[in-house]
Design goal:
heterodimer; A: about 160 residues; alpha/beta; Rossmann fold; five-stranded parallel sheet; about 45% helix; about 15% strand; B: about 100 residues; alpha+beta; 2 domains; two-stranded parallel ribbon; 4 helices; elongated
Chain lengths: ~160, ~100
């Protein structure tokens, strides 16, 4: 499918695995420049190589800790220095420090951790990227939520609260 | 957040949308399922059966998704071809009666 992305600039936060990786591959196949943000250096290398092979004219992996606002700002700044603008930001990451528990077994720190990874990670990337998105001729943001936010299960109480983007 | 930003960023021409996947076979989820007896983490129908029995979720297509089935939806929403959809929550869940 021609998505009109030839030479467009895209960030995929959480783009080394799963649907983030699948989306990044779609962007690459369409000729977009793609920056993938994730923690694993090995995953970033593997992904950027794959995106280049698929047709991305400039695929880069930037090691980023989405729990750390300064790390996110630095990652987006690298994109700004390289491309000057950003057409699309995809928030596909969902880092979790706490495992799934029931409501009564989550303590305050668990709740903070879940929101830090699932909500604030997206807030950080959007906030950092807005100047670059505004500098582009067209711009899109896609936040990945979860269907489970609409069909509850007891162990997903914090996950779904934080994923209701 | 998406709905709010879609409104406030409209004047900048920034379209903001959410994609809501249902159960999909990510590598991490498959790794979680692998040691569990009675479920084949590489069988999308079997994963959905596990979800149905454990969480009470079922979907019309009666199987989990592969991540490659979610990626193109994200890509379209993030692309120049999307020119009039903003503030939307796109369900990619295999079909359900959920809102």
């Amino acid at each position: 499918m021609d998505l009109g992305l030839k030479d467009a600039t895209v960030i995929v936060a959480g783009g080394t695995t799963g649907m983030g990786r699948a989306a990044a591959e779609c962007f690459a196949e369409d000729g977009a420049r793609v920056a993938v943000l994730a923690r694993s250096e090995a995953g970033l290398r593997d992904t950027s190589d794959a995106l280049t092979a698929l047709g991305s004219p400039d695929a880069i992996g930037i090691a980023t800790d989405l729990f750390d606002g300064s790390s996110v700002v630095a990652a987006v700044a690298r994109v700004g220095e390289r491309w000057g603008h950003l057409n699309a930001l995809v928030n596909a990451a969902g880092p979790m420090r706490s495992g799934l528990k029931t409501f009564e077994t989550y303590d305050d720190q668990d709740w903070h951790d879940v929101f830090d990874g699932l909500t604030l990670a997206a807030v950080r990337t959007i906030r950092a990227a807005l100047p670059l998105l505004r500098a582009a001729a067209w711009a899109r943001i896609v936040n990945v939520s979860a269907m489970s936010t609409k069909h509850q299960s007891p162990p997903l109480v914090a996950y779904t609260a934080a994923k209701a983007h | 957040m998406t709905k709010n930003l879609s409104q406030s960023l409209a004047e900048d021409g920034i379209l903001v949308n959410t994609v809501s996947p249902g159960t999909f076979a990510s590598e991490s989820f498959k790794a979680t399922l692998a040691p569990m007896p009675g479920v084949d983490e590489n069988d999308l129908q079997d994963i959905m059966r596990f979800i149905k029995e454990g969480f009470g979720h079922s979907v019309f297509l009666d199987r989990a998704a592969d991540p490659s089935e979610i990626g193109p939806v994200i890509a379209f929403a993030a692309s120049a071809r999307n020119t009039y959809m903003t503030g939307a929550d796109i369900n990619v869940d295999g079909g359900s009666d959920f809102a």
